[in-house]
Write a structure and sequence with these properties.
Elements: E1 3-6, H1 16-31, E2 35-38, H2 52-63, E3 69-70, H3 86-98, E4 102-104, H4 109-121, H5 140-148, E5 153-155, E6 162-166, E7 170-174, E8 183-185, H6 193-203, E9 208-212, H7 219-229, E10 235-239, E11 242-243, H8 260-266, H9 270-278, H10 293-299, E12 310-311, H11 314-332, H12 334-338, H13 354-364, H14 373-377, H15 379-382, H16 389-393, H17 403-418, H18 425-439, H19 443-455, H20 463-470, H21 472-490
Parallel strand pairs: 1-2, 2-3, 9-10, 11-12
Antiparallel strand pairs: 4-5, 5-8, 6-7
The structure holds one RNA strand of 75 nucleotides.
RNA sequence: GGCCUCUUAGUAUAACGGUUAGUACAUCGGGUUUUCAUCCCGACAACGCGGGUUCGACUCCCGCAGAGGUCACCA
């Protein structure tokens, strides 16, 4: 049974750089009919951020990464918050004490710092085991006493070579110089990540540990603990970093990495986000670019995960976003896309009937990159735009004509459109084509004039569609207002 | 500094000893008898360097360089 987990610490929001380590384990588990677990690693009380867990859960739900066990829903291995599993860690730690592989360390932190500095000055790599206190050799009973008295518990390392297999990075090995007496249980009684995750992954029967490559250098220490505890380790799947757009650093909050939910609030569809991130550092060997969740579940494979860092490219994410907006409209219809647009319309839109907004959506959807584009691209459908003569007179197709000429053209257009009995797309299209002949203007000239006069927007859908949606009265009145303004200005 | 990892166009990637080194985003040009966009067509653009192995190397081996990670009572 494949079992994977996403194990964030609740220190803030999830950004693009770390959400991939939720997506990949999800895919790995679910494609094999396995379980995906959400475990909250909240052992660092100092960095704990209130509400972060809720935000994490919200983010996962939004992306469609629903977990089978874990925070919020419980499961057979409760609790899923590490802060509530103290006793479990202590039980396992005691085992190490009993076999002489853990000791209570009375060295004050300041002293450790001194050692560190001294070693640095002497240009030798700092290892705590080089400064191992006499208490490291105490009997299990005495160790327990010292531990209970408040000393942190350290692992007693045995320097040796380790080699292991990583599903992404391949066969890896290190020398004995990386093994150290790492802290297992802190002074506050809570375990460090280094110890807690080993215990939890074992207890929760995790089959694949999917995490960032930054843990690679700690691997030998983890292997030593698995060995001392005499338990089998899960498979290791190390994910390369997601790099920031500039520089070569991994994407991080400090460098302004946006939260995943920020992109949601911009109106990027979760399908697009999932698609983009899944393909950042993974491909199925074909030239496919667009994947649905079920396609990902079908095609994802660990052995095609890239082993070098991948740079986050917001432009490509935006491209994906546009693709998905059109895909949903084309495949599922206007209602399906409309259902996603809540909160993305201009304020003025909300006093109009839903049907009207849907009509607008169906003529503008193919130029949306993100749903929030609706706010800036559709306002003239809901509010009479302010007349901006400069926009007309400076337009590249119109600037060679005088204001009088423009006004006269608008008069002709208005006159012809007024004759339309049945104000619909087809009639309008026919009328516009007729006007083209009548005025002997190029399409770009005549249509730009009418388009801008009625929208005063930098761009808009095809004229006959816009006109049909705006309605006869509204459209003609805008046309005439623009004409009057042109005439007045010309006087 | 020690240890570990990585290295194909600006970006994401394909190739698994023999290809004019493919694709997508971005950029630039053109078309789809209206703007913007969509869609279509085209162009630009890459195997970090040096040695081997081989008839033949992006591909295998060894060096080097560059980049990244890590060396916490953080995860």
């Amino acid at each position: 049974m494949i079992r994977t987990r996403f194990a964030p610490s609740p220190t803030g929001y999830i950004h693009i750089g770390n959400v991939r380590s939720a997506i990949y384990p999800y895919l790995i588990a679910k494609q094999a009919g396995g379980k995906f677990i959400l475990r909250i690693e909240d052992t660092d009380r100092a960095r704990y951020v209130d509400g972060a867990t809720d935000l994490i859960m919200e983010t996962l739900h939004w992306l469609g990464l629903d977990w089978d066990e874990g925070a919020g829903i419980g499961g057979p291995n409760e609790p899923y918050y590490q802060s509530e599993r103290k006793e479990i860690y202590h039980t396992w730690a005691r085992k190490l004490v009993e076999i002489g592989r853990a000791y209570a360390d009375p060295t004050p932190p300041e002293k450790v710092d001194e050692y560190r500095k001294a070693d640095k000055n002497a240009k030798i790599p700092f290892l705590f085991r080089n400064h191992r206190p006499a208490e490291a050799d105490l009997s299990p009973e005495e160790t327990m006493k010292l531990w209970e008295a408040g000393a942190p518990l350290r692992f007693k390392a045995e320097p040796k070579n380790y080699s292991w297999h990583d599903e992404v990075m391949g066969d890896l090995s290190t020398g004995p110089e990386v093994l150290d007496d790492i802290i297992l249980i802190k002074k506050d009684g809570l375990p460090t990540y280094n110890f807690a995750h080993i215990v939890d992954d074992f207890e929760m029967e995790v089959s694949h540990i999917v995490r960032g490559v930054e843990y690679l250098s700690s691997m030998p220490n983890y292997l030593a603990i698995y060995e001392a505890l005499n338990i089998e380790h899960p498979k290791f799947v190390s994910l390369p970093h997601v790099l920031a757009p500039q520089g070569n650093k991994k994407l991080s909050k400090r460098d302004g990495a946006k939260s995943v939910v920020d992109y949601r609030d911009d109106g990027i569809l979760p399908e697009a986000m999932l698609n983009y991130l899944a393909c950042l550092g993974w491909n199925d060997g074909t030239e496919q670019e667009i994947y649905t969740m079920s396609e990902l579940l079908e095609k994802f494979s660990i052995d095609r995960i890239q082993n070098s860092g991948a740079r986050f490219d917001e432009t490509k994410l935006l491209w994906q976003s546009g693709i998905w907006i059109r895909k949903i409209f084309d495949e599922q219809g206007v209602d399906a896309l409309y259902a996603r647009t809540e909160g993305f319309w201009p304020e003025s839109a909300m006093s109009y009937p839903e049907k009207y907004r849907k009509k607008i959506l169906s003529i503008v959807y193919d130029r949306l990159k993100v749903l929030s584009d609706l706010r800036t691209m559709t306002d003239y459908f809901f509010e009479t735009p302010e007349i901006d003569l400069e926009m007309l007179t400076r337009n590249k197709f119109l600037k060679k004509m005088s204001e009088q000429e423009l006004a006269e053209l608008l008069r002709i257009v208005s006159e012809r459109l007024s004759e339309i009995k049945d104000w619909n797309e087809d009639e309008l299209q026919a009328a516009f084509n007729e006007l083209l002949e009548k005025t002997a203007k190029k399409p770009a000239e005549l249509f730009s004039l009418v388009r801008i006069s009625t929208s005063f927007a930098p761009f808009s859908p095809a004229l006959h569609l816009t006109a049909a949606v705006l309605g006869r009265e509204n459209f003609l009145s805008r046309l005439n207002s623009a004409r009057s303004a042109l005439l007045n200005d010309g006087m």
